[in-house]
Amino acid sequence: MSAIDNLAGRLAVVTGGSNGIGAATVKRLAAAGADVIIGYHSSEVRAQELLRSLPAGRHAVAHLALEDPASFQALAAQIDGRGGKLDILVNSAGFTRAIPHHDLEALTDDLFEQILIANIRGPYSAIRALRTQLRASGDAVIVNVSSISGFTASGSNVAYCASKAALDNIGMSLGRALGPEIRVISVSPGAVATDFVPGRDREALEAGAKSTPLRRVVEADDVAAAILACATHLKVSTGTTIVVDGGRHL
């Protein structure tokens, strides 16, 4: 491991860290030497299993609810008990359902609001609650896991696409507002081989990949590698988007 890749002594929080892109990111960050707090919502068992699999370090788990800003305040207090400094925040948690864009009746007001709260207000609540701890780092990065749906308007449903566009816009605003101590970067995958979108199986992913320039399925670890690079290499990038989609958007 080169010096630039070494995250020893750095603390990271990954929301949605027990599964999918979040879990792959936890593994990448821990392998690079970071201490990682695994944020989970519904599966403490899965988070604890992941925790036990990590290399030695001051790793931990934390229950986080995107709809409950108080859970992020509790996390801030937990970090204060560890010295009060947070170096990496990965907002990986989110929510969607597969609904055809023409089916306006299926995308109810309640579901629309639920998606917006999870995908926009949740990450914003995390950033707001942890801003002091991030600023204490002096060289912190926030990575918002977004989607190419935010600029293609093609995705699991209309509200999901809108939420990711808003998340990218927030990243631009906060990239300007939180510098120089804190960088803010969106990492935007296309379809990823996880169970995030109910009903999308491996066969569908492989079929879709055939029409992309790189003709390969994007794996969770591909996205995690890009997130790691935001922490280790992209030191002069903020308020921007890194696309990880095999060229699907082209």
What is the gist of this entry?
The chain is α/β, with parallel strands linked by helices and 250 residues long. It has helices at 20-31, 44-53, 69-80, 109-137, 149-152, 158-178, 202-209, 220-232, and strands at 11-15, 35-40, 60-63, 88-91, 140-145, 182-189, 240-244.
Helix content: 40-55%
Low-pLDDT residue intervals, each spanning 5 or more residues: none
Strand content: 15-25%
In whole angstroms, how far apart are the ends? Answer: 34 Å
Could you name the CATH class? Alpha Beta
* Strand ordering within the main sheet: 3-2-1-4-5-6-7
Class from secondary-structure proportions: alpha/beta
Overall 3D form = globular
Task: Name a few traits of the molecule.
8 helices, alpha/beta, globular, Rossmann fold, 7-stranded parallel β-sheet, 250 residues
Secondary structure topology:
Layout: E1 11-15, H1 20-31, E2 35-40, H2 44-53, E3 60-63, H3 69-80, E4 88-91, H4 109-137, E5 140-145, H5 149-152, H6 158-178, E6 182-189, H7 202-209, H8 220-232, E7 240-244
Parallel strand pairs: 1-2, 1-4, 2-3, 4-5, 5-6, 6-7
Helix pairs in contact: 1-8, 3-4, 4-6
Organism: Bradyrhizobium neotropicale
Keywords: Oxidoreductase
GO molecular function: oxidoreductase activity
